[in-house]
Amino acid sequence: MPNTLIHIAIQAPLSRAIFRKAEIPWILAGAIIPDIPWIFQRFFYSIPIVDPFHLRLYATVQASLLYCLLFTWAITAFARKPGPVFLLVGGNCLLHLILDDFQIKWGNGVHLLAPFNWNTMDLGFIWPEHYAGYLLSVVGIIYLLFLWKTVLQEGLFLSQTPRWKPAVVCLVIYFFTPFAFMGQLEKSNTHFLEVIHDTAIRTGRSIELDRVSFHKETATVTTFTREKLSVTGAVPQQSANISLKGIFLNPNSLYIEQFHVHNSYRIYASLVGLFLVLLIWLSLLFNRRFSPHTFKESR
User: Residue 276: CA atoms inside 13 Å, Cβ hemisphere, count?
Assistant: First the structure.
């Protein structure tokens, strides 16, 4: 998935070009909402008592387009013009997911029709380490820094009478209903989740894993469930974070057919982007620059 700075570099100028008076903080919110489940997953993954497999199921449901729109409806209930702002933020959520699909993600993918259909989109044109990603990451930083003063001057225009009821209802649905769909998600074997969870069916089955840790000394990979699998076949020359395609030789060992080595730039670029967006929102809320505002679409 593209890092946060890439999403900002593409989505913010495009949205601003289509909706000339669109408030940049809302655009930035739409560029981040689909990643919120994965941010929380990373946080809770560090807690030993949390089951990483069910945490992944939960986050995968929440990262679908429908749940992104539920979260969008909840936060835009506080906007002065909730309808247009919902379209702006929701449109950016959709664009975020489409951009995610442009990158190669073995054992991963975007759910646009969930929970009605668990098939994933997977266009997969370039790896995250492609030079275009580095270039767009720099563009994202420059864009935010260049418009920082403009954003603070324009302010953030919120409703004086927030619509609390729809916001609370949407958040309750967003946080509690994913449990109802986790079983369907596992049985669909989306992201190879069924094969990962059910060791009895593994032998002879294909598997794709996104960003797992390969340990050269022990010839193992550690999956997101914290399980260590012995590996043979095509393996890296040194320990690394890799994506792979392979076949289970038995429940505990895997033959790797292909692999791709990742670096750490993506996570650090995302942290920078998230920090800058959070700083913008906190600055606006702290300054309380709330005043009447008319949202107009450019013709």
Answer: 24
What's the rounded Cα separation, in Å, for the pair 24 and 12?
A: 7
**CA separation, residue 248 to residues 141, 245, 251, 255 (Å):** 42, 10, 7, 6
Strands, E, within the chain: which ranges?
206-215, 220-222, 228-233, 240-250, 253-262
For residues 56 and 109, give the distance between their C-alpha atoms in angstroms, rounded to a whole number.
13
Helix (H, G, I), strand (E, B) or coil at 262: strand
d(CA 6, CA 133): 7
Helices and strands in the chain, H and E counts = 11, 5
Is the bond into 25 cis (omega within 30 degrees of 0)?
Answer: no
- Across the chain, what does the average pLDDT equal? 92
Place of tokens 């913008």: 280
Indicate the pTM of the whole model.
Answer: 0.91
Q: Is 219 helix (H, G, I), strand (E, B) or coil?
A: coil
Which residue carries 């959709």 as its tokens?
Answer: 94
Tokens read off for 277: 């967006």
Token look-up 């670096």 returns: 263
| Tokens coding 291 | 């005043």
**Which residues are CB-contacts of 105 (< 8 A; sequence separation ≥ 6)?**
1, 122, 124, 210, 243
pLDDT tens digit string along 64-98? 999 999 999 999 999 999 999 999 999 999 999 99
Residue 258's DSSP bridge partners are 245
User: How confident is the model over 224-273, as pLDDT tens digits?
Assistant: 999 999 999 999 999 999 999 999 999 999 999 999 999 999 999 999 99
Helix (H) or strand (E) holding 174: helix 164-176
Q: Quote the CA–CA distance of 171 and 165 in Å, as a whole number.
A: 10
